[in-house]
Design brief:
By secondary structure, this protein is α+β, with helices and mostly antiparallel strands. 47% of the residues lie in helices and 23% in strands. Helix 4 runs antiparallel to helix 6.
């Protein structure tokens, strides 16, 4: 005869109905799932970002003014750096110029630095510095006080200085190659 033993697991109907524990369990489980999703998202973003940075870094590299680096990099099968020449700057001693028109007279104190394309142009500009200063002074003194005070007026003045200084000096047939005119000080009083 078969007798049935009472099961160790109570039936569903015999469990106590406690709504308090189920109300706390659902928000805790939801919070755990939310934290897991956020963690996976952060880890994936970090992984993709680091891989992209490594891929970008392994490509082209810039070496400013380092012409000897490329042959040694090629010999070691490293990524070749693009050689960018170091900038050549020539600072001109600051000076003060009087600018005027019919209504007013103002003083302009300015310091200029020239960005030059090559060493030959720098040497030529240094050699003819009195003429360089004269060209700038004559150009600036012809400006109106209102024009030199606006940003557009300063840009126009820089362009005019660049054109003026690019003209060849008297005995030389070739002009200087000036890339940019930078104002390092500019005061109108």
């Amino acid at each position: 005869m078969a007798t049935s033993k009472p099961s160790a697991v109570p039936s569903r109907n015999s469990l106590p109905k406690n709504g308090k524990s189920s109300r706390l369990l659902r928000p805790i489980l939801s919070l755990l799932v939310l934290l897991a999703v956020a963690g996976i998202s952060v880890a994936t973003t970090w992984l993709l970002t680091t891989r992209m940075q490594k891929n970008e870094a392994s490509g082209l590299q810039l070496a400013v003014g380092d012409a000897q680096a490329a042959p040694t990099q090629q010999a070691r099968n490293e990524p070749v750096s693009a050689i960018v020449p170091a900038p050549i700057f020539l600072a001109i001693e600051p000076f003060t110029v009087t600018v005027n028109n019919d209504e007013m007279e103002r003083m302009v104190h300015m310091a200029i630095t020239l960005r030059i394309s090559d060493d030959q142009s720098r040497t030529l500009l240094e050699k003819y510095m009195p003429e360089v200063r004269n060209r700038i002074l004559m150009l600036v003194s012809g400006q109106s006080p209102q024009a030199v005070q606006t940003p557009q007026g300063k840009r126009d003045l820089a362009t005019a200085i660049q054109k003026s200084l690019s003209q060849p000096f008297t005995p030389n047939p070739d002009g200087q190659r000036i890339s940019d005119v930078l104002f390092t000080a500019f005061v109108v009083q």
